[in-house]
Amino acid sequence: MHKDHDIHDPLAIYRALLKAQSANHELFLWQESAEHFYKFPTKIIKVDREGHQLKLKIALEYIGMVEQLWGLDNVSFYLPNGSFYLKLIFKRITPNGELLTTFPQEMIFFDRRSAPRFHPEKLIKIEFKSTSFKTHKNCYDFSRGGFSVIYTKSEQSAFELGQKISQLKITYDDLVVTCSAVVQELTPIKPFVFENIPYGYKKVSFRFVELNQDQKQKIASIIGHHLGIFRVS
Description:
Blueprint lengths: L9 H13 L3 E8 L2 E13 L4 E5 L5 H7 L5 E5 L4 E5 L1 E4 L4 E5 L5 E2 L14 E6 L4 E6 L1 E3 L2 E6 L12 E9 L2 E14 L13 E8 L3 H19 L2
Antiparallel strand pairs: 1-2, 1-4, 2-3, 2-11, 3-7, 4-5, 5-8, 6-7, 9-10, 9-13, 11-12, 12-15, 13-14, 14-15
């Protein structure tokens, strides 16, 4: 961290966020909670300095993760443009997927050189293989014990509770882990604060099984590279 590059002035924060919005840059939710980390992109659609709030656009498939983080005192976001992270509080979510948050009190500069393999624009990719299907998904919820993926209403989820996936490939940048996992939970995502909206999304949670030491170390490395932003001082 370089304190000289931090932004504390409300007008400077407003201008930095407005610049990111005008350039259509993504603002990543990037949060550690209960030994998991959550990471997914949002878009800034309104910077309301006078109303002391931001309005962000999120994909409906992320609602389940927003629900899990709702009520936290602060949720971390990362702005790759300029390399800043900021703390926000969820206020409200609208029926069309607009997330309202508080206006940030500061923007903390993060020197990416201090965290090797820090790639905010890259997501964790999961490849599932079995005798009957092969599918790829981005992962937004990851931990040492397992991970979750979201299936939309239009997608087909071929998983059953207790099913073992022996051919699983996890990729983040040049880190690759091949391992096995068991379907731990199948959870229909509730409408949450939405009303009268058809909602057929499903979260499929997996638990790692039969990991050897090398696989454990690689999984720990993926987590460590994401959480470095919070631990470098």
